[in-house]
Amino acid sequence: MKIGRNDPCWCGSGRKYKQCHEAMDKKIEFYAREGHAVPRHRMLKTPEQVEKIKAAAVINMACLDAVGEAIHEGMSTEEINTLVHEKTISMGGIPAPLNYEGFPKSVCTSVNDQVCHGIPSEDVILKSGDIINVDCTTILNGYYADSSRMFLIGDVSEEKKRLVEVTKECCDLGLAEVKPWNFLGDMAYAVHTHAEKNGYQVVREIGGHGVGVDFHEEPWVGYLSNKGEDMLLVPGMMFTIEPMINMGTQQIFTDKENGWEVYTADGLPSAQWEYQVLVTEDGVEMISW
């Protein structure tokens, strides 16, 4: 049913539609008529939702801060899991990965050639020279925050350090392209061109996602498209920038025994950082990182 100009706005602000989102909706309709993919209203976060998501992000980032302070050579990835679980619970949150579609732990710990979804274990002991991605997702009062960071253990080779640095640069360059009325492809182009310029490959099968009121929402966020492609960026959209960058081939495989852990096909290292971002009226806001 078409909303009237004097009806309450669909966003729940209590303002009349003509004073709130009518102009934005007309702009979105223009892009849709031009053939672009555009977000539906349910993909746009309201100010009230954003504030609740930010509260979850406080816990999310506190967990990663705690990992950064504690992580060391000789530590097991199960110890990281325990740290994140206890920190999350102590701050009133819930670790989203635990029991999500059968995932057995509270955080993902992906070491060296593990691309993502590494399962913490007492048997995985961090060694000097390792790189590890710790991916943390937090639920607070039904709202989600999601981000990850890379950590270097002991004496890491210059090749691995460079991979981690370039992956962070890819995220930052992609972030700079997130602004209203740009496209997801603008962000993706910045990511994959920088990775490729440095001799790396971006994983194709796994990408980012909408997040906030659920763990994984629309849109799916890839990193191999070009400027002007993919979904239109509109104020209120929230998603993750989390490219997985491989030192060697982009090809990957999933462990058949546990069905979760993803590895590079050639055994070379992979790196990933994850930002949770919000498209605003005049740019972008980092929610969790």
Characterize the structure shown.
With 289 residues, the chain is an alpha+beta fold. It has helices spanning 22-33, 47-70, 77-90, 158-176, 184-197; strands at residues 94-95, 108-111, 114-116, 131-140, 143-152, 201-202, 208-210, 217-221, 238-241, 244-246, 252-254, 262-264, 270-272, 275-279, 284-288. The strands form 5 sheets. Strands 1, 2, 4 and 5 form a 4-stranded antiparallel sheet that branches. The protein has a 3-stranded antiparallel sheet with strand order 3-12-11, with no helix packed on it. A 3-stranded antiparallel sheet has the order 6-10-13, covered by helices on one side. A hairpin with a 6-residue loop joins strand 7 (208-210) and strand 8 (217-221). Helix 2 (47-70) packs across helix 3 (77-90) and helix 4 (158-176) runs antiparallel to helix 5 (184-197). The longest helix is centred in the first third of the chain and has 24 residues, at 47-70. It starts with 21 loop residues before the first helix and ends with a strand. The model has no long low-confidence stretch (mean pLDDT 97).
